Please model this.
Amino acid sequence: MAYVDTGLHLQYGSFEEARAWIGSETPPRDCEDEIERSQIKYFCSLVEDGNPSYWDEEWARAHWGGILAPPGLLFVWSMPLLWRPGGEMRPPTIATQIPLPGDTVINVSTDSRFLRPVLAGDRLSFVERVIDVSAEKKTQLGAGHFITTEITYRNHRGEVVGVHRNVLFRYRSTPEEARP
Model:
C-alpha cells in the first residue's frame, strides 16, 4: 500500500517535539469575511430553523440589536478558504502543524461556549492555542495521540464572543513500510 497525502499538510515529528507545542498559540487572525445575513439565512434554511432571531430584522433588533448569527456557525467563521487564486493558503488548524507521527486525523469531541451574541455585520478574529498532546494511545483505529486545542473568538470591539475546544485523534492508518 502506497502512502497517500491526506491534503491536511500535516507536520511529522516525535511526541517530544509535539509536547513542546503545549501552550503555543497563533497570532490573532481575522475571519475571512464579516458575518453576513445571507450566510445566516442560508444556514438556517438548511437546518430548517425558523427562529425570528435569524429571520425577522425588526424582532431581532428589539431583542439582540440586530440579526443574530446561529451559535452553530461560530466555528465555521474561522475556517480557511479551500482555494484562493494565486494566494497562499492558511493551514486548516494549528493541530495540523504539531509534529507527530500519524497520517490521519479524526475529530473526537467539540465543546463550544457562546459568551456574547454575534450579529450580522460583526467582524471576528480568533486565536488558536494548543492545550494538550496525549501520550500514545492504542485504539481500534490504531495507535496515535489526542490533540486538544482551543479557539478564542473576539468581535471587532475586542469582546470575547465564544470559545471552541476541540479534540482530534491523530493516528497511523498506513502500514509501517508505507509511512513517511
Remarks:
- Residues 37-46 form the longest helix (10 residues).
- The mean pLDDT is 90.
- Residues 15 and 100 are 6 Å apart (CA to CA).
- The first strand starts at residue 29 and ends at 30.
